[in-house]
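SAMPLE LOG
Freezer: B-3
Tube label: C17
Construct: single chain, 296 aa
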Amino acid sequence: MKRIIIVVLCLGFMSLHAQKSESQAKDPVGGLWSYSGKASLLFNQTAFSQWASGGVNNISLGFSVDYEVHYRENGWSWDTKSSGSYGLSYIQGDKFLKKTNDRLEINSLLGKEFSDTWSYSTILNFKSQIAHGYRFGTNEEGEETRSLRTQFFSPAYLQFGVGLYWKKSTDLWLNIAPFTQRITFVSRQFTQDLAEDKAYFGVSKGNSHLFELGASVSGFYKFEVLENIFIENRLALYTDYLGKPKNIDLDYSLTATMKVNEYISTQLEVQLVYDDNAVQNLQSREVFGVGLSLTL
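STRUCTURE (predicted):
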């Protein structure tokens, strides 16, 4: 776990020395509302016909939406970003469609400046998923089967914390919240039949939520590495004072977007997650696609 954190921090420091995004600029004096967003539709297809080395036909489709709202006036700042993404894949011969992506997240941060770059802060974070998640297998006859593993709001994470906020611009900021509560919500249908020594995303038998009190660190950095090629880094760390404070939860994502023209772009997203309440191992996810992109 220490090696993972060191790698992530190194990536962050490397990013700080990269080129600054042209969009990074000081907010003008006085009140300011700003809105921005983008929607992307990614498509991949592979087809084979009498291919000597073999292969399986497959199609995947993914959709994502990001939207941001920023406000600043008289030393107060409010930054909110909502993100949603969902993808499906069909592989010839499979009985069921498979999810390739499913994420719903809202981040909102309220700050009051006490210096040019530092503020007192209150942060709110919500994370869940959009659709059912399944565990796939085969029965004795060799047929594909699936069992429900997760669904919307099961699990869902609600995090609320107070601390200090360092903000260079909307493209570069860091928040440190030494007092952060996190509640994990789940449906009782997943916990009512658990064994006494088992847990579902940290929630024990018969319960529907888990309360944690700890500290969190979150950060964001976006820059233009080359013309029309943008890199976004997101980092979230959390430790629970009431449970295992040395067990640090990690959520790091890197998104690289190359804009071909006004409507066509390619996108690579890599995410690393460590949460021993979910899986006692490092989780990784990678999504790459070419598709349509629309600025909102």
